[in-house]
Amino acid sequence: MGFKLSENACKFLVRTARKAIGSKFDENKLITNKQDIPEELDFNSGCFVTLHKNGKLRGCIGNFREDKNIVENVAEMAVQSAFNDMRFPPLTKDELSHVEIEISVLSPMVPVNSFDEIKIGRDGLYISKGIFSGVLLPQVASEYGWNVEEFLRNTCRKAGLPADAYKAADTKVYRFEAFVFSEQDLKE
């Protein structure tokens, strides 16, 4: 990926995500003073926030917004992942201390003109056809050991489409990169 973030910036984003989730239990507003935000986080970007509990997925929601500051976007997606991922019940206060937070800061999406452009481990995929769309982050294909075709097929399935829908002329396929880090990566 063309950019990386310092360890300080990554720690700031993880703390922001954890504080945003925790603020929902304490009924406090999340207040981040602008002067506390590292200067390198003064950019807009899409992101995904993934929650793991005991090594298993516990929530993952994100967006591709390029009109929202990354700090604000991470805070919002952390709350969405904790409480609004329809695959899981809302996170409980007791679970919060057992959840590991992973953040994926996204590059802009690029239309795929040839499937040869897709690189496993570097690219995530976004596929849309009609009202259906689905996304898989770059790390998913690597974790499962998929090749490009398997990655495309599984992204179609995630979108609620037939596995071979990526071959249809009216299906749009995009790739993007992500800078991914987790609390585990940042432990002293």
What's this model, at a glance?
By secondary structure, the chain is an alpha+beta fold. The protein has five helices and seven strands.
Structure description:
With 188 residues, the protein is of the alpha+beta class. The protein is 30% helix and 26% strand. The chain is built from 5 helices and 7 strands. Strands 1, 2, 3, 4, 5, 6 and 7 form a 7-stranded antiparallel beta sheet that branches. A hairpin with a 2-residue loop joins β5 and β6 (132-136). α1 (7-26) crosses α2. It is globular. The two termini are 25 Å apart. The model has no long low-confidence stretch (mean pLDDT 91).
Secondary structure blueprint with pairings:
Elements: H1 7-26, E1 47-53, E2 56-63, H2 70-83, H3 93-96, E3 99-106, E4 110-111, E5 123-129, E6 132-136, H4 138-144, H5 148-158, E7 172-182
Antiparallel strand pairs: 1-2, 1-3, 3-7, 4-7, 5-6, 5-7
Helix pairs in contact: 1-2
- Counting helices, strands and paired strands, the structural category is alpha+beta
Which residue ranges are poorly predicted, with pLDDT under 50 across at least 5 consecutive positions?
none
Percent strand equals: 25-35%
- Separation of the first and last Cα atoms: 25 Å
The biggest beta sheet is recorded as:
7 strands, antiparallel
- What is the string of helix and strand elements? HEEHHEEEEHHE
Radius of gyration: 17 Å
E-strand count: 7
Shape: globular
Number of helices, counting only DSSP H or I runs of 4 residues or more: 5
Fraction of residues in H or I helices: 25-40%
